[in-house]
Design brief:
Blueprint: H1 2-26, H2 34-68, H3 72-88, H4 91-96, H5 104-117, H6 123-133, H7 139-151, H8 154-178, H9 184-210
Helix pairs in contact: 1-8, 1-9, 2-6, 2-7, 2-8, 3-7, 3-9, 5-6, 7-8
Amino acid sequence: MLLSALIFGLLGSFHCIGMCGPIAFMLPVDRSNNFKKISQITLYHIGRIFTYSLIGLLFGLLGKSFNLFGFQQQLSIIVGVFMIVMVLIPYKTFNKYNFSKPLFQLISKVKTALGKELKKKSPDTFLTIGFLNGFLPCGLVYMALFGALASGDALQGSLYMVLFGMGTIPLMTTAIYFGNFLTAKVRQYIRKAIPVVVVIIGLMFILRGMGLGIPYLSPKPIVEQINASYDCS
């Protein structure tokens, strides 16, 4: 399932260009020096992925609590179904119940801090921008977090989000280098492809939860057998 995080990040990064693209285009990188430019962009990605790893750690820890109560398989199915349902729900309907709305004040503070950092050019600025960028609301990040939740382990959840973040690096880096390079037609194709990817990953989580005995894709659940026989002689 960790592979799905990388694929999710690679394909989902097209969506990230729309959400985080303006921030990426505004990064105060030194375009006169290739070494500085690469190091600054790298720091930005490190900050962003570090945030993802922290949030993934928390969601993985939450998933572990479900695992301890024996609900890991059911949780994987629920996460898969939820991913598919989220794709089927019209955007306007989902936006009415967007659970990021109660966090608007916090998000506003994050955006204010981002605005201040974008005016600076010190090395730590790019790390801070990436760190703050990771907290901005994004539908695909939410989907990835459900994957971290279904992992059922804090470290696995963190790794899931790290791989998701790494998957977004190639396209985000290209955007920073070349700016808004995608045509309107290409964006339209991408918008149509992303829901298909989410549905496929959702189906993978459902298969995983079903425990059909398919190696790597749907392994059988591990059941601990306790020998209750005693020697009374």
